[in-house]
């Protein structure tokens, strides 16, 4: 069982990116999922958390109004779309999955992490 991110790359400032977090070996719709990112020289920060009921319980202030989270259960995948990106969005983006919604408020640990995908925002 694992999750893996894809969709990273070079994005121009003001553009959009769409990242995928795909699960294999288990039914993703039964899991809460968070997106995290780690910018160069900075601590990892949480971007979002979505419960297995598809409730978005957390969005970082830096992405509010710019991010759309969606699931495609047929593809066992959750997506993060970010619009109006800036160089400050440059980071390695990772997804984490947990069987309990309590992972969204830190009461339980994540069950698995993806390896991450690099996003670079630059002209």
Topology diagram in text:
Blueprint (H helix, E strand, L loop, with lengths): L1 E5 L2 E3 L5 E8 L7 E7 L5 E7 L5 E4 L7 E6 L4 E6 L8 E8 L13 E2 L3 E5 L2
Parallel strand pairs: 2-11
Antiparallel strand pairs: 1-3, 3-8, 4-5, 4-9, 5-6, 7-8, 9-10, 9-11
Number of helices: 0
Uncertain runs are none
Q: Residue-averaged pLDDT, rounded?
A: 95
Radius of gyration: 13 Å
Number-wise, the strands total: 11
Shape: globular
Name the helicity range. Answer: under 10%
Sheet with the most strands, sense and barrel status = 7 strands, mixed
Percent in strands:
over 45%
Order of helices and strands: EEEEEEEEEEE
Quickly give the structural class. mainly beta
Q: Separation of termini? A: 37 Å
What does this structure look like?
The protein has 123 residues and is mainly β. It contains no helices and eleven strands. It has strands at residues 2-6, 9-11, 17-24, 32-38, 44-50, 56-59, 67-72, 77-82, 91-98, 112-113, 117-121. The strands form two sheets. Strands 2, 4, 5, 6, 9, 10 and 11 form a seven-stranded mixed sheet that branches. Strand 4 and strand 5 (44-50) form a beta hairpin. It is globular and about 40 Å long. The protein starts with a strand and ends with a strand.
Give a short summary of the structure.
This protein is mostly beta strands. It contains no helices and eleven strands.
């Amino acid at each position: 069982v694992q999750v893996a991110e894809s969709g990273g790359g070079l994005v121009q400032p003001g553009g959009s990116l769409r990242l995928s977090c795909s699960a294999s070996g288990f039914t993703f719709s039964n899991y809460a999922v968070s997106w995290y990112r780690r910018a160069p020289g900075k601590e990892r920060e949480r971007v979002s958390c979505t419960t297995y009921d598809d409730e978005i319980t957390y969005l970082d202030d830096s992405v509010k109004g710019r991010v759309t989270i969606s699931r495609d259960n047929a593809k066992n995948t959750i997506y993060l779309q970010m619009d109006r990106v800036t160089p400050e969005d440059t980071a390695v983006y990772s997804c984490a999955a947990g069987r309990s919604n309590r992972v969204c408020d830190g009461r339980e640990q994540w069950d698995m992490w993806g390896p991450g995908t690099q996003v670079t925002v630059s002209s």
